[in-house]
């Protein structure tokens, strides 16, 4: 049984009993950031950079809403799953039809989801993101248990099961019980050094981009974002997937990017644990979820753990090899409550090393990449900066394995970061300076969650 912490939501956006007075300002900042990003039935990650609905953002954001406006938490997840495809995939972007098509690149016209069978009426992308939604739904419910919440769980449950089924079947390209991602965007850590090796094999030239106009660099510094060459490859990979109607059969024979990611698969395993809890709550059978969770954990260990480095690495199905970079993705399997003690120990060694600096007293949260690596870039997106969602996940992994002192250190550093820079999208891993969007949804939401504990 997973011991997720439960705390009822404080009413009306005021700090709950457990939130000290000195954090009242931060709490209000987080609530007003979420309110400012709320858009009729979902929350945009950022009004400028990401003016639509994103899949794993909505999951994290729902956890934050549960503390202040639980109805928004359920609307958030419900609107996302309304856009689920017939095959079970939950698209990584759901486009808001009232936002001009050119506001985000690549926009709805590029993805052309309406030309594909089994897609919803609303325009979406054709990719997915880490399946953290069952986990989020369970966390949201435990923070605000109610009859409405239970009814929402009941409605979401078959959709969450279909999401898992899609990943466990159509995406099991390697045939070993893990899901493959078909694009770096599916990892959520778009330009992580983890993808450098598999991306290098994707044929693309920066010239590909001349046909398009990037929108992200209008709102954020180019030096803090993926490069043009990264984008050229992102576009080339989507183009290949789109040309095959976003079908998953035959991927091994034709698709240029196929990787088993430790965070993605750990999320898939954690989702089965959460589904077991949800099933218990709504009178369904938790047994099959527990069995699937155990199988996923075994496969994550067998396929993605490297006893030489002690950490987890993505497996590139094109080369058959583990990718060499030691990124924060390698720590993510801690969120599996049944991760064997030997791997827990090894990951803790990695996390507490100079590479990531986890400690009971730590000044800054975990960076997204190994601080000691030659290609560590403290300003560039997922190649060094600290992100609140990854720290939140690792913190829950630490709690799941009884590492309360380290979890407390991480929590304090996350709060300190927001005290330094507010609800930015990501943060300089040394100075804590805010980077990217200044009013970012999941930073606000997860800040509420850590403040409330
Ligand atoms: C592409 C919305 C998303 C996050 C991702 C983050 C970034 C998009 C982009 O923004 O990706 O999906 O345009 O850069 O990498 O994790 O979900 O916040």
Give a concise summary.
The chain has 453 residues and is mainly alpha-helical. The protein has helices spanning 24-37, 55-68, 70-82, 108-111, 133-143, 147-169, 184-187, 196-200, 216-219, 228-243, 251-254, 262-282, 287-304, 341-352, 388-400, 404-421, 441-452, and strands spanning 38-39, 42-43, 53-54, 93-94, 259-260, 315-316, 426-427, 434-435. The structure holds (2R)-2-(alpha-D-glucopyranosyloxy)-3-hydroxypropanoic acid.
Characteristic key phrases:
single chain; 453 residues; mainly alpha; two-stranded antiparallel sheet; two-stranded antiparallel ribbon; 8 strands; 45% helix; globular; disordered N terminus; binds (2R)-2-(alpha-D-glucopyranosyloxy)-3-hydroxypropanoic acid
What does this structure look like?
The chain has helices at residues 24-37, 55-68, 70-82, 108-111, 133-143, 147-169, 184-187, 196-200, 216-219, 228-243, 251-254, 262-282, 287-304, 341-352, 388-400, 404-421, 441-452; strands at 38-39, 42-43, 53-54, 93-94, 259-260, 315-316, 426-427, 434-435. The strands form 4 sheets. Strands 1-2 form a two-stranded antiparallel ribbon. It starts with 23 loop residues before the first helix and ends with a helix. It contains 17 helices and 8 strands. The chain is mainly alpha-helical and 453 residues long. It is globular and about 55 Å long. It is 45% helix and 4% strand. Helix 1 runs antiparallel to helix 17, helix 2 packs across helix 17 and helix 5 (133-143) runs antiparallel to helix 6. The structure holds (2R)-2-(alpha-D-glucopyranosyloxy)-3-hydroxypropanoic acid.
